[in-house]
Every structure is written in C-alpha cells, then in structure tokens.
Amino acid sequence: TSGGLGRLKDCVSCIVTEERNGIYECDFEYPVGGLNYNLIEVGRIICVSHDISYVAAPAISSEAISDEQSDALTDENGFALTATRTFYPEEYDAQPFDIVSMSRPIDGVVRFHCVHISYRQSYLTVTGSSINSLASALNLLENSSSPANPFVYQTDKASTGYLASADGVPKTVRSMLGGVEGSILDAYGGEFEWDKWNVILHEKRGVHRDFAIRYGVNMLDYNEDLDISGTYMSCVPYWTDGTNTVVGTRQISTGTTITGRGECVPLDVSNKFETQPTAGQVEAMGLALMNETNPMIPTQTIHVEFLRLQDVGYENLKNLFECKLCDTVDVVFPEYNTSGQFKIVKTVWNVLRDKYESMELGDLS
User: Fold this and answer.
1) pLDDT value, residue 113
2) Can you say how many angstroms the Cα of residue 246 is from the centroid of all Cα atoms in its chain?
3) How far is CA 61 from CA 19, 84, 189, 315, in A?
4) Rounded Cα–Cα distance for residues 129 and 162 (Å)
C-alpha cells in the first residue's frame, strides 16, 4: 500500500510460475544501470502480479474548490481551498515474493530468483501427535509453531481422519501441509491457494470457465503427453508398523487399464491408521484410495498456448475468458480426437506484458 522502496520500471523480464499444489516462484532480470537497482537485495521482497486477478486499489486525489464561475476559492488567509476524494481504480492483485538468489553475468543484466512469501513456512517448525481432523491440524500449525506463525489458515473442508505426519517428530509447517507422506494434503485432499499471509485449502479451487481452446481458432501451440507407466488395475492393500503386518484378504479392483494386462500392485495404507486395523479396514481403505486416485486411468497432460480475445482488442469481453490456476476449460483438437474438460494445473505469467505465456492442462482429478 505504501509503494515500498520504489518501482522497478527498467525490468527486462519478469515471469511468475505457479503449479497446482506445487511451486510458486518468480524470476526477473534487471540491468545494473536501471532505476533503483541498488535497492534490490537478496532477502528483500518484490510485489508483482501473478495472474489476471484484479483488486480495487484506493487512490486519493486533491482538487481545487471553485465557484460557479470556475474561480478558485481561498480561505481568510488567501490559501487555496481544496477537496479530497477517494476512488478505486482497478489494478492487478500483487503478491509478495522473497528474493532468494541472484546471478551476475558479464552482460550487466542481473538475474534474480524469488519464491512466494508462503515458502517461509519451510522455516517454521511444529511438533504434534494424535491429530484426527483437518481443523485440529490447521490449529496446530497456526498456534504451535516455532517461531510464532504469522500465517492465517482457512478452509471450506470439514474433513476428519488420522494425520500420519503428526507423529511427534518435528517437521516444518510447509512439509506438514504437503510434500511428505501423510501430510494434510495427503490425508484430507484439496487445492491450496497462497494469498499473501493467507493459506487457503479449498475443496475445489477454481471454476469452470465458459471458454474453449480450439485448434484453428485461438490455439497457438499444443503438446499432449499420455503416460501409462504408473497405471494399474488392482492392488493388495496392507498395513505394517515394522513388527506386525495386516494384509487384506482379497485383491481390490475398480476397473481395467488400457493394456488389459490385469496389473496388480501392493498398496501400503499404513499412514492412514493410527492404531493397528483389521483386515476388513485395510481392504476398505485400499478400495477408498483406488476410487480416489483412479490409478487405472493414464496420466494426460496438455501444454497449450492460446489467444485471449482481450489481447486483440475485445477488452469488454475479458470477464468471459479470465482463466486462472485450477479453473477448468474446454479443449477441442479434432485431429487428435481430443475434446473435453481439463483443469489448469500450471500457469506461466508474464508480469511485464500482463498476460499468460502458457498454461498446462491436466485431468480433472
């Protein structure tokens, strides 16, 4: 709100990359002779736009007061009378990023790498055990970390269940959120949104956009990957604590793979139970995980670049085509027989050009 130490108007490039439940980072280049270059230091913060989100930013202006003949009015001392007004222009929502590294090549254009301020949770440590609900888990992170946690946690989920990562061993707050086996994301699911000091776990982040990316219409580039290396048809679930082992009495299957080979794998469900389960509970958990992850479906990822109408002069239609991370859009590519809804799982945003460089689309799971 204060403008910080100064604007970086001579920036050469600035790209923000964000992935669904993944990285959120920024890279920018700045010339040594650029305005305020001397203020850019590792450890300081830059604020940049990150997608097409807008906020109403208050601005205050002062205007001279005049009479009906447009003559300026003054007070008894002869000073001009003025009035102030507050208005709310649209600006891009700016997110704070910590500058964590830099590289100085011979050409005088310095490269800086930054991470979203939410990464600071990697340097907050928490210890807890016997957590059996999402609400309790978030309360632990917010109120029991060392040092004191400046982040605020919100969710629209009301999930219960054992949190395996709360095993009494100290862990960082960020790893408890996701990235380790038995984390909050692993136990309760959802999609994270990182908004300044707010950490929001959505049941489903994003909405379906009434927007189609079509070959021959607005599609600029397309690359599709299909991978069956991690697919399987059935599993034999088991639980173990290193001493005792409980194995499900039957093979769990929820569908067939495209190979039809009947692939079967052992499935470790140990981190889903706080105490030793029965064979029936192990089987039920194996079935639940199979239904949740759909391992018989190949991984399909599409990398697209597309043209938005507001980029070519149809700014009045921008609200119809504003796509963000975790939104779903339609993709139509007749030659590859591709037609369906896909989730935006990665965005690359060009800060200086106020537009996406590219998006990566994945399946809806």
Assistant:
1) 96
2) 37
3) 39, 6, 47, 27
4) 10
Contact predicate 39/126, CB 8 Å: no
pLDDT tens per residue, range 137-174: 999 999 999 999 999 999 998 888 888 888 888 999 99
Q: Which residues, 6+ apart, have CB-to-CB distance to 70 below 8 Å?
A: none
* Residues 123/127/131/137 CA torsion (nearest 10 deg): -30
- Paired sense of beta strands 171-172 and 198-202, if any: unpaired
d(CA 38, CA 98): 17
Coil, helix or strand at residue 123: helix
Distance CA 177, CA 201 (A): 10
Token pair 């018989």 is at which residue?
A: 296
In this prediction the pTM is: 0.77
Structure tokens at 104: 């100085």
Residues 6+ apart with CB under 8 A from 213: 219, 304, 306, 329, 330, 331, 332
Judge residue 242's burial from the number of C-beta atoms within 10 Å of its C-beta, 0-12 exposed, 13-18 middle, 19 or more buried.
Answer: exposed
